[in-house]
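Example complex used in Figure S2.
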Amino acid sequence: MIGTQGFVRSVRLPVPALGNNIADAERLKAALKKELDTDRVVVPLGVVKNLPGLVRKYDHRLKTVLFRESFGWRVVSVQDPDGSDPVCGIALDIGTTRVVARLIDLETGKTLGESGFDNPQIRIAPDVLARIHHAKEAKGLEELRSSIIDSVNVQARELCEGAGIGIESVYLMACAGNTAMTHLFLGIDPSFIIREPYIPGVNMPDPMDALSVGIQLNPNARIFLFPNIGSYFGGDLIAGILCAGIHKREEPSIMVDVGTNAEVVLGTRDWLIACAGAAGPALEGGMSKMGMTAGPGVIDRVVIDPDTRHIEVHTIEEKPAIGICGSGMIDLAAQLFLSGMVDIRGKFSRERCGDRLVLKDGIATFELVLAADSGTGRPIALSQVDLNSLTSSKAAMHSILEVIVQQTAGIGFDDLERFYVAGTFGSFIDPRSAISIGMLPDIPLEKFQVLGNSSLEGSAKLLLDPDLFDEIATIRENLTYVELNVNQEFMNIFSGAKFYPHTERSRFPSVTIWGQA
Amino acid sequence: MIGTQGFVRSVRLPVPALGNNIADAERLKAALKKELDTDRVVVPLGVVKNLPGLVRKYDHRLKTVLFRESFGWRVVSVQDPDGSDPVCGIALDIGTTRVVARLIDLETGKTLGESGFDNPQIRIAPDVLARIHHAKEAKGLEELRSSIIDSVNVQARELCEGAGIGIESVYLMACAGNTAMTHLFLGIDPSFIIREPYIPGVNMPDPMDALSVGIQLNPNARIFLFPNIGSYFGGDLIAGILCAGIHKREEPSIMVDVGTNAEVVLGTRDWLIACAGAAGPALEGGMSKMGMTAGPGVIDRVVIDPDTRHIEVHTIEEKPAIGICGSGMIDLAAQLFLSGMVDIRGKFSRERCGDRLVLKDGIATFELVLAADSGTGRPIALSQVDLNSLTSSKAAMHSILEVIVQQTAGIGFDDLERFYVAGTFGSFIDPRSAISIGMLPDIPLEKFQVLGNSSLEGSAKLLLDPDLFDEIATIRENLTYVELNVNQEFMNIFSGAKFYPHTERSRFPSVTIWGQA
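Predicted assembly (1034 residues):
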């Protein structure tokens, strides 16, 4: 089915005769216009060159690899209609931290391989801001650009080798990244993304020859980058919306992506509201810096018995504990709160914590894993300062949700049909725990859905379905971008949300706290 | 005027603000859509890369170099709105024998230089047919392609050096050649152009990056090749029509281009009829092989006094005669006929020629310049065989004109408002002489107009006027291509036209022959 509906189509050309002697390229165009029901098809020089020989060799039948462009369709390759050479594409998620590539058979839709690597730009400058500053130095932009392009080329070759195909069998590449990563990938001056009024160089790059970007695939391969809406709302989020399908549902649903920034999209098939960017100091040093990266020995789940206050921690690969990751932190905070060891103000309860609470440099610190049991020889602990930071983050998240859902869209949390959690944040989080601390709204658990790498998934979907280009256009048209202003009103909401789970206890009926049961 | 109507436009971009924060590329697009009154503008990656810095450096005013594409407009370059760097284009006539390039300032319309060179493909294979055969050999096509591309690059650099500008100041190139030359220039398989049913690889190549064709100009430069109608009606003729303006006149006019092939276009602003290709054996070895290439000592004009039969020859640069060129041949035939030295059957009159007519290898031969007066030490002579060949050629030309004007279009020669003579044939021909021998119809001399290199002129016009793209489309739409069949009917017409000036003497009332006055 995909083979006849996607980017690979077989067509039959009318056989030329003295009365019908239009050129080969124009006959191919005419056949494809009919097949694709379009009024514009481009056959580029790279395809025209050998077309006359191929048309006759394959007896006026051709398998064509196509791509959608802003103005219509473009022929990327023509080949043996009965040939068995694979026709592939690569979906690419250009993350600030990590880049993931997936090799896909465009005819069967099958994944032939997937692999990731750390974004090599990290070695040049750690975060988005530093990279944009580095790009201003002499050859800085080119250094950043070539580092990622070179790595993608290596990765693409390895993926192909792993799948036993040649790199020339890859005809399409769909990439999604945030606005800054997209600019750096293409070598576009990113300077003004971070300066008020925050203007990207481009929102909708037209599809390009892969070669013109420096990507080595089939010599005629095309590359598409998901468009961004603004400096703080990138193509990765458009890909995410596509992946979640928010833009196609009758009832409202929401997607929350917390990676380097916090981004929220809310809407239906008729309207979309997006809000992104740092929600002021509240989120600064918040979600993204919370906890360490997942790895062996990292605590990812915590259970505390409210009655006995017995603590059980689970570590990745069940190795001795060496630290705690983001989802573990949220689990820990939830369990501490539910067992009364953290009070509604987010402060450790000296009484309930008992011996586990110690003073360290004058700061109350909760020892989750004692030195004797840890993998580092030192206790794995959470200080009041760490907890305050988590409290700010969870309050900021809830405030953003309240502003966008209730104040901006004018609906209630109960009206949400689905709640998608994407990005690093979503990969491991336990919605139950996030609800318990008041980070996420108290809606039925079955409404939560983890999307994983929605940016990669959206890119992969696009490679198999040309209609998604229309959906992207619709998303861009329907989407209203809301600048989240950290004003007095926001700070009032934020203050209420700093309590556990919230000053308005009634908002979280499902949360049962020790001693209040 | 040209600067504000052509491919160079200055625009002012709205200054971004928090309420109007669309990206730079999209703001440029919006401004140009308004300026150009179009709904599609593409800003390619090469232009986007430095756009953010330039937009602010020039305070949101930009001079843009643009080009028309099949789907709308494309930005080729953005620069200092007050800058004095020249913005240039090159018009190129890709002749089978000779290639001519003209460097043009796109803002003033001024020609900055023009030069030509022999098509280097001649060294590989002399004519179109031989080149197409050579292209089938291993690397043959690439050899032909790179030879012309390399030479054009050398020529372009020399033209720029001569004009004191850098090659990066050339942003556009418009090229016109016949269908085979266009294919070889682009490296497209030309095999099927010469095989029934005579199918080109492409009729309308989309504009391309000059670099993708191997042409080294500004890195973002675009290249356009005039479209062809079929294997025997190339872009050079479309450029010719554009140059002559046949497609814009209310009354019918005609263009005759005799170079390697004979091509005729007839029409008005409402309809166009074209006919091209070899008119069978009649034209074979005809027009194109007639006489030698013009050069010092070559006879280009002949006058014979009908009464005294005194012969006066004019040679180029007035050097001693070494041969005779095409226009000299037609002059000679006309003068011989008008003075009764050649009869109405096209045979030398022994009585009127006298001593000048000798037998050479048993063939009657007319000595135009005696050995003593010639620059070669041998007589410059015209044999009955040479004259027969000229007779066939002139008869074929007249027959083609009769078929297309009278039979196909159903009008008379008197209805023609203009009669354009293009190509090598037109450059030097004396219409009076051509009428005398019955080659061209007997219409008032002031209707004849010599176009020179109409292919180059048409290309040059295009570089200054984007509206000509619409005219090209109209020409292609309105044009009916007529295959000239050499059937019995044509041969009957041809037989009558082999007489001097014609069997129907009344068709040439202005021709006064000695002894008939």
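The first strand of chain B starts at residue 8 and ends at 12. Chain B has a mean pLDDT of 91.
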